[in-house]
Amino acid sequence: ITALAVVVVIIAIVVVRTALFTSKQIKVEPAASITIDGTKAAERLCKAVSFTTISHQDPAKFDKAVFLELHAFLQRSFPKAHAVLKKEVINGCSLLYTWKGKNPSLKPIVLMGHMDVVPIEPGTEGQWTHPPFSGKIADGFIWGRGTLDVKENVTGLLEAVEYLAAKGFEPSRTVYLAFGHDEEIGGDSGARKIAEILEKRGVKCEFVLDEGGSITDGIVKGIDAPVALIGIAEKGYLSIELSVECEGGHSSMPPRHTGVAILSRAITRLDEKPFPSRIDGPARLMFDTLGREMPLGNRIALANLWLLSGLIKSQLSKVPSMAASLHTTMAPTMFQGSPKENVLPSRPSAVVNFRILPGESIKSVMGYVEKTIGDPQVKLKIVGHANDPSPVSNIQSEAYTSIASSIKRLFPSAVVSPYLVLGGTDSKHFVKLSESVFRFIPIPLKAEDLKRMHGTNERIPIKDYENCVRFFIVLIQKTAR
C-alpha cells in the first residue's frame, strides 16, 4: 500500500506540473511597416564584404590599411548616421560611435559588431560559388566572407541609424555602436580597449547586445516554428598545454615508457573522464522555455526534471551541440612530438582546448585536469588567451523583455528562448559595464547555414538582411526612445 501511494503521489505531481507547464511567449503587436531600400542596403553590405579585413593568428600578417579603407567607406556610405554620431577610432582600427541621448539620467545601450573575418581555408578557394571577397549579389543572396559573421551587424546598425536620422528620430538615452577589429582572435586589441575606455569614463549601461544567438529554422527538435535564441551567457575559454620532459635519443633504444606514451596516457585519462553534465543555469532556462512549446511527451519530461533529469541528460548527451550545453567540454587539438620518425622527442606536448560551463572557472578546470591525469611527470601550462565564463544575464530584466518583444514584433511566429552561447564573442569584455549582456542577431539559420560560418560559401539572403536592419530600427526605437 505504501509503494502504491508513492506511485500515485508521483503521478499526481507529474500531471500537475505538466498542466502548469504552459507557454511563456510574449504577446505583442506586429511592427508597423518599415520601408527600406533593400537593393541599396545590399550593395553597401557587398562593398563592406569586399574589404579583406582578416584576423590572422600571426600578428605580422595584420593589414591595418584595409581596416582604415573600410572606415572611410562607412563614412561615405552613411552620411546621415555620421552626422548624428560621434566617431572615435580606438587603438588604431576599432570604431566607437556615440549617439548622444537627450536624457543623461538614462543609462546608455551598447550595440555591437565586429569588422574582422576569419581567413579562407587554403585550398578551398575554388569551392566557393562566388569568390569569398567579391560581395557578389546573385540568386537572392549576398555572397562572401563576413555576410553572416558578422559584417551584417556593422552595416545593419549603421543602416538603422541612417534610417532613423533621416526620420528625425532623437534618442532619449545614449546609444553606443562598438565595432571591434580582432574579435576572431579574442578581441583584446579591439573590444577590450573600447570597454576599458567606456569604463574609465564611468559608463554603466542598460544593456549590451552583441552577436551570438540567431533564429534557428528546423534545428531545435520538437518545435516546428523558428526558434529565436538569445544568448544570456557564454562559455569560458581555456587552452592547456600538456608536456613531458624526458630523455631524447634514438628510437632503437627507447625507455620502458616514452614521453609520448606518458602524454598519450594523460590524454586518454581526460578523454575517459569528461566533466560531469548538469541541467542548470542557461541550459535549464532554455529547456524550461522551449519545453513548453513541444509535444506532450517532451512537455512531460521537461516539466519534471526533478524526476527525469538523468534520462534527459542521457538522451541529450548523444547530440554534441546539446551535450556541450550541459558540461565543460575538452578537445585535444594539437600534438607535437619529434621532427623525425626515428628520434625520441625530449619534450612531447599536446594542447587541449576547454569551453568552460558557467559555474566553473579556469582555476577549477586546472584542478580537475591535474587530478584526473594524476601524473606529476605531465606539466600543465595555460597557452593563448583565457577567460572565465560570463555572468548569466537576467531573463526577467526589462532589457531581455525589450529584445524579446522586438523579435516577436518582426518575427511573430518565432519562439523566443534564452540559451548558452558555446563559443566566444566580444561581449565578454563588456560584463563590467552592465548586468544585462545579451547575444543575438536576427538572422534565420538552417543547419546547412551553420556550416557556412567560417566555412565555404558564406552568404545571407537579401530579404533576411533587410529584416536585420528592421530589427535594429525597432530595437533602437523601443529601447532608446
What do you see in this structure?
The protein has 481 residues and is of the alpha/beta class. It is 36% helix and 20% strand. The chain has a 6-stranded mixed beta sheet with strand order 1-2-6-3-7-17, with helices on both faces. A 4-stranded mixed beta sheet has the order 16-9-8-18. The chain has a 4-stranded antiparallel beta sheet with strand order 12-14-10-15. A hairpin with a 3-residue loop joins strand 1 (86-90) and strand 2 (94-99). The relative contact order is 0.19. The mean pLDDT is 96.
Topology:
Elements: H1 2-19, H2 38-49, H3 64-77, H4 79-84, E1 86-90, E2 94-99, E3 109-114, E4 137-138, E5 141-143, H5 151-166, E6 175-180, H6 191-200, E7 207-210, E8 215-216, E9 227-234, E10 236-244, E11 249-250, H7 259-272, H8 281-290, H9 296-303, H10 305-316, H11 320-323, E12 329-336, E13 343-344, E14 349-356, H12 362-373, E15 378-387, H13 398-410, E16 415-421, E17 437-439, E18 444-445, H14 447-450, E19 459-461, H15 462-479
Parallel strand pairs: 3-6, 3-7, 7-17, 8-18, 9-16
Antiparallel strand pairs: 1-2, 2-6, 4-5, 5-19, 8-9, 10-14, 10-15, 11-13, 12-14
